[in-house]
Specification:
Elements lengths: L1 E5 L3 H10 L2 E5 L2 H6 L4 H12 L4 E5 L5 H14 L4 E6 L2 H11 L5 E6 L2 H10 L3 E4 L1 H6 L4 H14 L5 E4 L5 H9 L4 E4 L1 H6 L5 H17 L10
Parallel strand pairs: 1-2, 1-8, 2-3, 3-4, 4-5, 5-6, 6-7, 7-8
Helix pairs in contact: 1-3, 4-5, 6-8
Length: 226
């Protein structure tokens, strides 16, 4: 499983990239506008933090396939490093995915709510698909089940497209989609930090430390001290 940060906050990205096994960063227009900064400058700052090898996902906002293609080429021209273009799975978006994929442009097909949307995007050449787990749940669906069915379809038809499950409200959803066949998840900073947050862990560490210092002295705070 690969883990992406779903954020455009440079300081949060910097912290998580330092401490966690991060594969890259996903953004969308709503995330970008929250930062209230010139967007190209923001993308370049994120790239500087994560380096050129990790993937940075940027979503187009055009309505027609031609507009989306023009935006995609602009993004790839203006930004260094390993960028992936996010395109929504509308009819125009599907056309853009087909044409850009034929030119070897890496595409994440986004705003996916059904397995058939994901299948169409994969057949059109998308490198990734992003089912919206919690948003599906909010529409009285089952986001984890949708992810599992997408994984089954991709396996049945031997499609190389990867699932990047997105839109989570809790850690359990992330856990469940990982078990359901999602190779990748993109998660907000607050939830990522909860992945390793369990009360017993710091409590155990404290007990180990106290027992160690009972024997070797309270001034012995690590193994390399003489």
């Amino acid at each position: 499983m690969r883990l992406f940060i779903d954020s455009a906050n440079v300081e949060q990205i910097r912290h998580l990239n330092e401490y966690y096994p991060i594969a890259g960063v996903t953004t969308n227009p709503s995330i970008i506008v929250k930062e209230n900064r010139p967007y190209l400058e923001l993308f370049r700052d994120i790239r500087e933090v994560i380096g050129n090898e990790k993937e940075l996902f940027i979503q187009v906002i055009g309505d027609t396939a031609e507009e989306m293609i023009e935006e995609a080429k602009y993004i790839l021209h203006e930004l260094p490093g390993n960028s992936v273009v996010k395109i929504p799975v509308t009819e125009e978006g599907l056309k853009a995915i087909k044409l850009l994929s034929a030119q070897n442009v890496p595409i994440l097909a986004t705003t996916i709510y059904t397995p058939l949307q994901a299948l169409m995007a994969a057949l059109a050449g998308a490198k990734y698909v992003a089912p919206y787990v919690n948003r599906i749940d909010n529409l009285t669906g089952n986001g984890v089940k949708v992810v599992a069915e997408i994984a089954q379809l991709f396996s049945t038809y031997q499609l190389p497209t990867e699932i990047i499950a997105a839109s989570f409200k809790n850690v359990q959803q992330v856990h469940d989609v990982c078990l359901s066949g999602s190779q990748t998840v993109t998660v907000g900073p607050d939830l990522i930090e909860k992945f390793i947050a369990f009360p017993a862990t710091p409590a155990d560490v404290s007990v180990f430390k106290k027992e160690w210092q009972k024997t070797y002295g309270t001034d012995k705070t690590n193994l390399i001290q003489s």
